[in-house]
Amino acid sequence: MPARPLTSYWERSQAPMQCLWFLLPLLVLYSVGTALYAPEGGDRLPAIYAERLLGRFFELFGATGYHLPPLVVIGVLVGMHAASRDREPFAPEPKLWPWMVVEAIVWAVPLFLLGSLFSDAERVGLAAVRGGDGVATLLDGYPKMAGFVFALGAGIYEELVFRLLGIAAVHTVLAGVFRAGETTATVGAILLTAVGFALYHFGDVTGFTWPRFLFYALAGAYLGFLFVGRGFGIAVATHAVYDVLAVGVA
């Protein structure tokens, strides 16, 4: 079957290479920010948990280094580009980026509305990022800008682990092992990874609460459907917009 050119904004903004070019500044900002706000005597900020999970995976094979997680993002998207049957251009299309930013801001609005319904649960979640309310946290004692850097990293690596890799892996199991249909496998993968996304957020210093679990599960499902419908770049940007603004107003 001949390759099909991507003609519309909706198609091109989901293409792997355009997602990579769009997200590359966020990867650079996060990498520079973790070094810029490093604690005295250290070389970078503490890694977010999703990034540490990737690091532990590579340690199983004897590979270590801060450079590995961003290389995973780049490698996966370049690999998806190489495997794509569509005639996607390799070169960046900067004219797409402003619209992708606007779209991400629009998609972040429902997350803020969801957060307003679970304000207490979300307040605890933000305390785990920024400190306060007596919670000893990962970034306690760091400047507020470090919280913004941390939020960027969460948008990138949590979407990588739970949406780009997680949904693909669970979908493969549901469709390949359990012989689920395409729709069932896709929806099942979104919902199961959303549960994992919620449980993942209890790996920090805060204890389990059902409101907080429900908030993160619903947010994970929302981001999962957004990822399937609009691609990795928009999902990451939406997650990052929400986290950055939530940290800013907390």
From TrEMBL:
The chain crosses the membrane at residues 20-39, 60-84, 96-118, 184-202, 214-242. GO terms for molecular function: endopeptidase activity. Residues 147-244 form the CAAX prenyl protease 2/Lysostaphin resistance protein A-like domain. It holds the Pfam family Rce1-like. It comes from the Bacteria. It comes from Phycisphaera mikurensis (strain NBRC 102666 / KCTC 22515 / FYK2301M01). One of its GO terms (biological process) is CAAX-box protein maturation. This is CAAX prenyl protease 2/Lysostaphin resistance protein A-like domain-containing protein. Keywords: Membrane, Transmembrane, Transmembrane helix. The keyword Nucleotidyltransferase does not apply. InterPro entries: Rce1/LyrA-like_dom.
